[in-house]
Write a structure and sequence with these properties.
The protein is of the alpha+beta class and 205 residues long. It has five helices and six strands, in the order αββααααββββ. Helices cover 47% and strands 34% of the residues. Keywords: Membrane, Transmembrane, Transmembrane helix.
Length: 205
């Protein structure tokens, strides 16, 4: 009789242990399922679909801090592209300079006004001169705010008889502003100045 009771007690312990293991396993599976579901939803929400030319293109959303170096460099590139790419057409000059001035503070406007007063843009139009810029590199220090940048570029002055290549180095600071159609990266260039703008070579045409 005692042996029978002992067997029942042992069986009960086994059933109890098995039940606890089963409950723990079910809990772990449920927790894993919830975690993976949350991960899947978060991953799905990070995908953005953009409609362009009738096609849905997939893009990934990210925190702004993850994209600061890339966006800051592109902002600087865009500004220099619009400010320095000019043709002997008043409408083209005004359109490009207007786009550039949306990306910078009054330091860029002051430089534009100085060049205008010196007759620089009038000389471009009267001499049928085009100006092109190619960016070599942009360095941005994101360890300080506002972010200090330095831009290294080559500038070409294309005249009827010659092409002058210049070395162009500028510097300034970037601070955060609201994004807009005119300023898609949400940065504003401050205290912009030219460190170097010297002739490198002249080619006859």
């Amino acid at each position: 009789m005692f042996q029978q009771l002992k067997n029942i007690d042992t069986a009960f312990k086994h059933i109890k242990a098995f039940s606890l293991v089963l409950i723990a396993a079910c809990t772990a599976i449920c927790a894993f399922t919830v975690f993976k579901s949350y991960q899947f939803v978060s991953n799905a929400q990070s995908h953005i679909y953009i409609l362009a030319n009738g096609k849905a293109l997939e893009a990934m959303s990210a925190e702004r801090k993850d994209n600061i170096p890339v966006e800051a460099k592109d902002h600087v590139r865009m500004f220099h592209y619009y400010f320095f790419n000019l043709d002997p057409d008043e409408k083209v000059i005004i359109a490009n300079i207007t786009k550039a001035l949306y990306l910078a503070d009054n330091s860029a406007e002051k430089m534009y006004n100085d060049l205008k007063e010196q007759g620089y843009y009038a000389d471009l139009m009267s001499g049928n001169i085009s100006q092109q810029v190619s960016i070599d590199s942009v360095n941005v220090d994101i360890n300080q705010y506002p972010y200090y940048f330095r831009c290294y570029a080559k500038e070409k002055i294309i005249r009827t008889s010659s092409i002058v290549t210049r070395s162009l180095i500028t510097a300034g600071y970037l601070r955060n502003v609201a994004r807009s159609d005119n300023n898609p990266h949400g940065f504003l260039i401050e205290k912009w100045n030219t460190l170097e703008n010297k002739d490198l070579k002249t080619e006859n045409r």
